Amino acid sequence: MNKISVVGLDLAKDVFQVHGVDADGEVLVCKSLKRVQVRQFFARLEPCLIGLEACGGAHYWSRELTRLGHTVRMMAPAFVKPYLKSNKNDRNDAAAICEAVQRPSMRFVQPKCPEQQAVLHLHHGRQLLVRQRVALSNHLRGVLSEYGIALPPGANAVSRHLPALLEDADNGLPMLVRHLLAELKAEHDQLIERIDRCEAQLKAWHVGNAVSQRLAGIPGIGVLTATALAATVGEGQDFKNGRQLAAYLGLVPRQASSGGKERLLGISKRGDGYLRGLLIHGARAVIHHIRRRLRIGQPGGNAWVEQLLQRCHVNEAAVALANKMARMAWVVLARNETYGPARPA
Hints:
The protein is α/β, with parallel strands linked by helices. The chain has 13 helices and 7 strands. The chain has a 5-stranded mixed beta sheet. Strands 6-7 form a two-stranded antiparallel sheet. Strand 2 and strand 3 (27-34) form a beta hairpin. Helix 5 packs across helix 9 (223-233), helix 10 crosses helix 13 (314-334) and helix 11 packs across helix 13. The termini are far apart.
């Protein structure tokens, strides 16, 4: 019997689909497995190449199958889609994964360790709490506006001004609304406490992680961005240069080139939107401080950004600086260096 050399595994919640071929491409196995059967099936199989789509649970199964002696490669679902030969179903998906993983030019996703996943889950959990806090704050402002009361802008305005409004008997708020606002404010304060606890855990992890600390030395990269970069990119060895990392984060222009004529559009916005947003917000903070120093007659401290602001809109400058920050982050990661100011020529 021929030996199975390549397997395409379509992951799911309960029913997994396996598509295995030999070295000549002949299909040797095409079957579905229950979750409890997956580990037993691959434990009996001789070491081979296994392809997975980078989806929920893929990093876990990559680690488990690697422990069994197999070579596991994960791919972005968008790169597997062109190899789907017919309608979408589990059998065709597994066959497409098996075909795609054998392509020499295929790009693979580096598996993450449990610690990296834990840090990213902490980031996304914090982001969820922030969205809930903003939604609750907007609802409180909307209720108050119905009675002619407008809170000043700012994330802490609810906590600062709402207690006095609830105690003011002359502002026209009905008693039912006062009770409602008190309940919503209590929930708002609890969300703030939970967000602070998440940030404290991220800061504690940052203190104990040398990679994250080196990244935080780059202007515009704080604890949140440094920890997210360290958990997402790792040592940066999956990227040949800084431009590849910037492209992975969607910070490079889209192209619509043809016939030898190059046409560059806006940024592609591919990849991790959360990490891209952190870098752009960090770049905005750097530009804000530079512009403030320039307004009071002090040197900005970054000639490249100052020249950029003279010919570009501030938003374009922020994206360009975020692109540069991503490239600097790759140098710090891949070359195990510490950020320092540019040396004079």
